[in-house]
Amino acid sequence: MTIERSTPPLDVGAIRADFPILASSDARDQRLVYLDSAASSQKPRAVIEAIDDYYRESNANIHRGVYALSERATARYEEARHLVADFINAESPRECIFVRNTTEAINLVANAWGRRNVHQGDLIVVTEMEHHSNLVPWQLLAEQVGARIEAIPVTPDGVLDLDAYARLLAQEPKVVAVGHVSNSAGTINPVAEIARQAKAAGAVVVVDGAQAAPHLAVDVQALGADFYAFSGHKMLAPMGAGVLYGRLPLLEAMPPFLGGGGMIRKVEIGRSTWADVPARFEAGTPAVGDAIVLGVAIEYLKRIGMDRVREHERDLTAYGLARLGEIAGLSILGPRNADARGGVISFDVAGIHPHDVAAILDGHNVAVRAGHHCCQPLMRRFGLTATTRASFYVYNEPDDVDRLVEGILDAKRIFEA
Amino acid sequence: MDNLYREVILDHYKNPRNKGTLDPADYSYEDTNPLCGDEIRIDLRVADGRVSEVRFSGRGCAISQAAASILTEMVENQTLDDVKALTKDDLLEELGVPISPARMKCALLGLKALKAGIYGVPPHDEDL
Checking DSSP bridges between strand A175-179 and strand A204-208, what pairing results, if any? Predict the structure, then answer.
C-alpha cells in the first residue's frame, strides 16, 4: 500500500485480546469475523467490567440524593460529560447532552430548536446520502410547520454535489443537516467547508456524526458544527447512551424537548420554568451507567489515539477495496480512494441478492449487514434496493478481509454452479 | 448455510415456475418486505372455484423468490378453500430447508401476498 502513515500501526493482536466476543468460534470451529461495527461495535473487557463495577459500586439516581452513593453516581456521570466534551473539543461540558443515541439527538434538535426557528415555507437542506435518522425527523418537522426539504444530490462517485449545494444555499435555508461519514457509501463529507458556506448563508448546521465520532478525531469547533450527534454503542460503549453537542447560545435559547423530572426549575399546576442547560434536555432518569461507561470507552479510544484508529481503518479499507475489486461482478458504492472514505464498504454482487450473500457469509461466521442501511434515497440513487456492507473497527485485521473475500467467492460458486 | 441453499431453492430461483403476471386477474396483490425492499406480486385466475392460473413477479433474495415459485406450484389447480387453508408450515415443509427467524419474512412474502389478494387485506405474519 502506498498510503503515508503519520502514526505507528496498531497492535491489533493486543486489541483483539481485549474483546472477549472475538475469541468465539462457531460449531464448525470458524472464528468470528465481525464486520458490522457500523451498526454496533463490540465491547472491550474494560467496558464490560465497568458496567459491572457501576452496578456493584456506584448505582443510584443522580442529582437528587444527598447520600454519598448518589453523590458518587452524580460525580461520575458529570465526569463522563467532561470526557465527552474533551473528546470532541466542545468549549464546555454544558454543551454535551446525554441522550439515547444519534436518532434521539437529532429528534431533540428538530423538535426543540426546529419548532421555534423553522417556519412556514422555510427550507431545510439535507443530503441524498443521509441515514433516515437525519432525514425523517426533518420530515416530521416540515410537516408540522409547513417547511420544505431539498437534498444535496450525490454524484456517481458517491460524493456530494457542492455546486448544487451552493444553489440550494442561495435559497437561504434555515438548517443544513449533513452526515459526517456516510454509513453506506462510506464517503467522508467536507463538513467544515459545508458548515462555512452554510453559516455564510445564515443556516444552522446539524451534523450526524454516528459514523465519524467512533472512527476519527472530531473537533466540533474546527468543523463549525452548531449541533453534532453521535451514539455510544458504535464506539465501544453500551447501547443506551449517546450525545448531542450543541453550541451553548443555541441550547440556551431552546425550549425543552421532553418534559418531566430533572429538567425544571419551578413547577406550578399551570406552568413551569426550565432548568439550565444541559439538565433542561435530560428529562427523567438518564442512562447513568451507560453514560459513565461511555466515558470509559472514550478513555480506551484515547489510549489508542483517534488518529491511529483512523489510519488503521483507512489502511484496512484500502486493502478491502483492492481485494474486493478483484472479484468479477462485484461493484463498490462510493469513492474509490480510501483517503476519502471511512471504514465502510458497501457492495453489490451481480446476480446474488445481498441477503443471500450475507447468509452465505454467516455460514463462514463472517458477520456483515445486508439491506438498505436506513438509506433508501441513496440506494434509489444508485438503482439498488439493498447492498451488502462490511465495516471495520480497531479490532479488524487484513485476515478478516480475506475471510470476507473467501465467503463472497463461495457465494458465487453456490449461485453460479 | 449450504443447507439453506439446497438444490431445490437454487433451482426455483434460477428457473422460476409460473413467473410473470396475469392481466386481467381475479386476485392480484403486491407486497414488499420493508426490511430489504423485496417485492412479490401474485396474480390468480379462478375458474369453477379452482385456481386455473397463477403467476408471481417481483425481485428479491433467493429465498423469497424460490418460495414464491414453489408456492405457485402448490396452489395450481387447488380450490380456493384449500388455498385459504394453506398455512406457513405447509409452505415451510415444502421448502424443506431450515429458515432462520431473520429470513422468515423472505420465505413468507409470497404467501402473504397470496392471502392478501384473496382476502383483500394483508394478514399479520402470525396469522399466516
Answer: parallel
Strands B50-59 and A227-231: unpaired
pLDDT tens digits, one per residue of B66-97: 999 999 999 999 999 999 999 999 999 999 99
B1–chain A Cβ distance below 8 A for any pair: yes
- The sign of the dihedral angle between the CA atoms of A208, A210, A215, A219 is positive
At B2, is the pLDDT very low, low, confident or very high (cuts 50, 70, 90)? low
Q: Does A417 touch chain B (CB under 8 A)?
A: yes
Pick the CATH number of B7-119 from 3.30.70.920, 3.30.565.10, 3.40.50.2030, 3.90.1010.10: 3.90.1010.10
**Strand stretches in A197-241, DSSP E:** 204-208, 227-231
- For the question of residue A375 being annotated catalytic, the response is no
pLDDT tens for A204-238 read 999 999 999 999 999 999 999 999 999 999 999 99
What's the CATH code, domain A12-40+305-416? 3.90.1150.10
- State which CATH number among 3.20.20.80, 3.20.20.70, 3.90.180.10, 3.40.640.10 fits the domain covering A48-303: 3.40.640.10
CA–chain centroid gap for A137, Å, is 16
Put simply, the answer to whether A372 touches B103 (Cβ < 8 Å) is no
Per-residue pLDDT at A44 exceeds 90: yes
- The question of ipTM being above 0.90 is answered as no
